[in-house]
Amino acid sequence: MKITDMNLDKAIRKIAFPAIFSFLFTVLYEIVDAFWLGRLSYSSVFAAMGAASFITWSLYSLINIASAGVNSLVARKVGEDDKEGYQRVAAEGYSVASIIGLLITFIMTLVYRKIFVVIGLEGQVLEDACKYFSVMNAGFLIIYFYNINTMVFNAHGDTKTGMKIQAFMLLFNCVIDPLFILGWGPFPKLGIKGAAIATIFSQTLGFTVGLVLLSRRKYIAKRAFKRFFKYIYAKKIVKIGFPVALVNWVFAMVYPALTSLITKTGNIDALGALNICHKLEGIPYFISMGFSVTAAALAGQYIGAGKSDMSIKAVHRTVLYNSAFLFVISVVFYFIPEKILSLITSDPKIIFEGARYLKIIAIFELFLGFEVVYEGGFTGISKTHIPMFVSIPLTLLRIPLAYYLCFTLNMSIPGIWWAISFTTFLKGLIIYIMFKHEQNTIGVRS
């Protein structure tokens, strides 16, 4: 049965829950790597991993130039029952991703070491960061292709297959991590470089399995690749995807600036607390991302099927589902933050700072869901430029607002936490208002 012919609530659950688990598996990747890297005899590896991962994740965001557009347009073509159309969009998505991936790899090969030096890395930390990033940089093309695979599955409403592939990749990574990191058996001990090699091998396996399944299910076709660089949809793909990529890239760039403000206060415990709390906040964020994927897929397919009213209704209903989850998490963050943090660390100073962060964030956590899921809705209706004009200025506002609250008003660290929380509230509220305005322009009532 087509997604657009299903009961709406059933369709939301069918798409959302596998997507949520897929995103949560991403967190487990980092935990597995950290576990095996912790078995090495030197501590600088985590500083190197953190620095390299910051650059890596900022570059990951650029794949949205291709993947967000593929998600939106494939979903619409599925709704239109245009088989040749969605196969062609997917093929051009891989083509756009190949250009982006190769360009980034070429540029970063020339400058990545200089970037690490500029941000202050030296000695063993610098060398380890370069070892890790050099491998990841060589594998960006595979990572980008894997991401396109996932978006094609998601656009068809088939998030369960993506979840299974992600789980398989995670298990494979668990097995080969100690082989390459610690040198078990006949393998050489490669340390942090081994972690990167294991990641690329896992991504390659996931991409290959996904490509086979996409072909078997006729989501992609060989004939669509015959004119690999003869574009029909590429311009639309980039037009939809570029705003999403820019939003995510700016978000990644702002946090180092906030970290520098924390450093200026001299409160090192707050830095440790922020690191832990980011991992905890990953839970509501990735849940919201799962529902964002759902909103994009449903909105796109309903638009393609000529059911604009249902596309809007689906997005609002998806937000309600997400809000139910985030409300529970907000209550937990606000009322028992110390108990949660004590499961991770026994340091009383870090627990104190982390509890202040979680309580302040919890107040507006629902609006994180508004921001993320309605952005998915805008992706589904191919109007990603609207949330971009809201999200980027307000994300950048965090820096001067945090400085003003922290130093000018002498609120210290809580001022930085309030800057993050309040701008989250503003982004969620304004993006919601803009989505309501957009539905009114097409004459739809929710």
Automatic annotation (TrEMBL):
Pfam families linked: MatE (PF01554)
UniProt keyword terms in alphabetical order: Antiport, Cell membrane, Ion transport, Membrane, Transmembrane, Transmembrane helix, Transport
Compartment annotation: Cell membrane
One annotated GO molecular function: antiporter activity
Gene Ontology biological process: monoatomic ion transport
Coiled coil segments of this chain: none
Transmembrane region(s): 12-32, 44-70, 91-112, 132-153, 165-184, 196-216, 237-262, 282-299, 319-337, 357-374, 386-404, 416-435
Membrane topology: Multi-pass membrane protein
Gene Ontology cellular-component annotations: plasma membrane
Domain of life: Bacteria
InterPro entries, alphabetized: MATE_fam, MATE_MdtK, MdtK-like
Major location (coarse): membrane
Protein name from the UniProt record: Multidrug-efflux transporter
